[in-house]
């Protein structure tokens, strides 16, 4: 049975962590080749499962030590039909690997959860297209149908919610939200942003959030920002705008580079964990509704540990 599906603990004012850049960690730190940035095939082999478990254990150790909750995202960002077909996955095998990803995190929850460290399991859904430069923008109904497979797979597992990561345009985000609602799953929408704080589609962040809320009756539990450095979006967060208060978390990149620059880079830019942590602390001070803190490309457990330390020092003083 899902532990928190009907009562998500991160909706309180307590600080929650989430993990960092799983794909960049597996590629650059662990030496795995991940075609299409797809981590889910690692679940099919013993070495891959062991690497995934080590990855999540590093974050769980931080959460237990810091005495905070944590949201763990399944390694299924690319485990949707189009991307899985490139890995020769059948429909049934794709359903099974999505559920196996949840099972991996259920086992981790059994080992690590403490009374002051609730562990929430999120089924991760990625975009149908490229997370930086969407070549084709889907309609709402196209997105609803496309993402239904993962939504159903997570609904039939012990996942507590669905999180759509690196959403590039509002229509796809609406479609994911409706697909989650069709199977009565809570959902979080996380938009990726360019260096000017807009979505890759060119939509302003506030407009995208308002469009999703209007089309779905405010169905998302909250929104997040990911795959952008705080320098790229801090200025667009208007404290007086109601849509800003709908943003419940941040998963920033370690690097200040643009998406185009990151695509062309031959080495991983891990940035400065201490500086990033201080930027998170200031963001939390200005926007206390930011409860879920993690990372995206180039971040690892060291960045998240620094973020937790900086933000908790202010909370606990």
Task: Compute the separation of the termini in Å.
Answer: 38 Å
Task: Name the poorly predicted regions.
Answer: none
Q: According to CATH, what is the class?
A: Alpha Beta
| Average of per-residue pLDDT values | 95
Secondary-structure element pattern, one letter each:
EHHEHHEHHEHEHEHEHHEH
CATH architecture: Alpha-Beta Barrel
The domain tally reads: 1
Helical residue percent band:
40-55%
Characterize the overall form: globular
- Strand element count: 8
CATH topology label: TIM Barrel
Largest sheet: 8 strands, parallel, barrel
| Strand order in the sheet with the most strands | 1-2-3-4-5-6-7-8
Radius of gyration: 18 Å
Give me the CATH superfamily: Homocysteine-binding-like domain
Strand content: 5-15%
Briefly note the structural class of the backbone: alpha/beta
Question: Can you count the helices?
Answer: 12
Provide a brief overview of the structure.
The chain is of the alpha/beta class. Helices cover 43% and strands 14% of the residues.
Question: What do you see in this structure?
Answer:
- This protein is α/β, with parallel strands linked by helices and 317 residues long.
- It has one domain (12-315): TIM Barrel, CATH 3.20.20.330.
- The chain has helices at 22-29, 46-66, 81-85, 91-112, 140-146, 148-155, 170-182, 205-216, 230-233, 259-264, 273-286, 301-315, and strands at 16-18, 69-73, 119-125, 161-167, 187-192, 222-226, 247-252, 292-295.
- Strand 5, helix 8 and strand 6 form a beta-alpha-beta unit.
- Helix 6 (148-155) runs parallel beside helix 7 (170-182) and helix 7 runs parallel beside helix 8.
- It is globular, with a radius of gyration of 18 Å.
């Amino acid at each position: 049975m899902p532990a928190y599906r009907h009562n998500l603990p991160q909706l309180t004012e307590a600080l929650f962590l989430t993990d960092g850049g799983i794909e960049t960690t597996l590629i650059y730190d662990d030496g795995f080749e991940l075609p299409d940035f797809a981590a889910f095939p690692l679940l099919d082999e013993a070495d891959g499962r062991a690497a995934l478990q080590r990855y999540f254990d590093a974050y769980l150790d931080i959460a237990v030590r810091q005495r905070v909750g944590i949201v763990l995202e399944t390694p299924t960002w690319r485990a949707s039909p189009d991307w899985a077909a490139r890995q020769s996955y059948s429909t049934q095998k794709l359903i099974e690997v999505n559920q196996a990803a949840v099972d991996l995190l259920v086992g981790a929850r059994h080992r690590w959860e403490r009374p002051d460290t609730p562990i929430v399991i999120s089924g991760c859904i990625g975009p149908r297209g490229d997370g930086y430069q969407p070549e084709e923008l889907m309609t709402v109904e196209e997105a609803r149908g496309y993402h239904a497979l993962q939504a159903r797979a997570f609904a039939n597992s012990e996942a507590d919610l669905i999180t759509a990561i690196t959403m590039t345009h509002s229509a796809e985000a609406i479609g994911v939200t409706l697909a989650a609602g069709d199977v009565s799953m809570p959902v979080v929408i996380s938009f990726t942003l360019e260096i000017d704080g807009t979505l890759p589609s060119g939509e302003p962040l506030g407009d995208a959030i308002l469009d999703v809320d209007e089309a779905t009756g405010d169905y998302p539990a909250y929104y997040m920002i990911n795959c952008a450095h705080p320098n790229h979006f801090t200025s667009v967060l208007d404290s007086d705008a109601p849509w800003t208060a709908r943003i419940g978390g941040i998963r920033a990149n370690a690097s200040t580079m643009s998406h185009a620059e990151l695509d062309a880079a031959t080495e991983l830019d891990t940035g400065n964990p201490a500086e990033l942590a201080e930027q998170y602390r200031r963001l939390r001070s200005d926007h206390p509704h930011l409860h879920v803190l993690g990372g995206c490309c180039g971040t690892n457990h060291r960045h998240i540990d620094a973020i937790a330390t900086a933000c908790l020092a202010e909370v606990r003083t």
